[in-house]
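Structure in, sequence out. Go:
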């Protein structure tokens, strides 16, 4: 699904975030991306949904090189990629229902399909009863579940989660990871950047460890490998 070859990323301020990344992520995998702060994890993640472009090398998703993809085609790429952020990024003046529906309205789905799909994902994250609530009326864990619902409502092939449990307590963090596992079990590829040693070491998945802009470990059933 994703292949990076010879990827380097140097920012205008001179900072080199990635230095010679070569990796393949296959359809249906669940992958943790780990490493110390400043290692390059966020840049690695952002390359996958074309928030950043490599300075050198190729990032190919489903046969499309994101490095050379025209800007006008980026929104179409992102229809097949759901992104979950640490700080939720919900629209504060829209209800839970409206936040999720917005992702379908921009691609001009019919109102009937929007309602069906929104209620399906709300059922998956167990928040159908909060459809008319505003984000500030929800707990942090509930907001993150809505963020996940919004990310998957268009049934993307890939979900990218950038520190999705970073602002949550341990019990709530497990709820979020179990939802991501459920999504993965239905065939969606999941790539999750995390600092959670407990989650990584308990749920044995593929682990890609990045340090100083390089992949230093890539293990099919890896461990976190750092103090946390």
């Amino acid at each position: 699904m994703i292949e990076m070859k010879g990827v380097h990323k140097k920012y205008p301020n001179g900072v080199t975030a990635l230095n010679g990344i070569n990796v393949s992520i296959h359809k249906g995998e669940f992958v943790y991306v780990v490493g110390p702060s400043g290692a390059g994890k966020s840049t690695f993640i952002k390359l996958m949904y074309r928030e950043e472009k490599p300075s050198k090398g190729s990032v190919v998703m489903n046969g499309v090189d994101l490095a050379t993809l025209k800007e006008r085609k980026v929104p179409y790429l992102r229809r097949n990629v759901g992104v979950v952020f640490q700080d939720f990024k919900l629209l504060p003046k829209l209800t839970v229902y409206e936040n999720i529906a917005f992702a379908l309205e921009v691609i001009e789905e019919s109102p009937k399909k929007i309602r069906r799909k929104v209620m399906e994902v709300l059922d998956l994250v167990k928040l159908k009863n909060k459809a008319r609530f505003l984000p500030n009326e929800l707990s942090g864990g509930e907001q993150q579940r809505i963020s996940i619902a919004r990310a998957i409502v268009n049934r993307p092939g890939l979900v990218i989660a950038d520190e999705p449990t970073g602002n949550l307590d341990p019990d709530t963090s497990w709820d979020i990871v179990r939802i991501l596992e459920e999504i993965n079990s239905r065939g969606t590829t999941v790539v999750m950047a995390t600092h959670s040693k407990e989650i990584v070491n308990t749920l044995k998945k593929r682990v890609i460890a990045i340090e100083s802009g390089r992949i230093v470990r890539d293990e099919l059933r890896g461990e976190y490998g750092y103090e946390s």
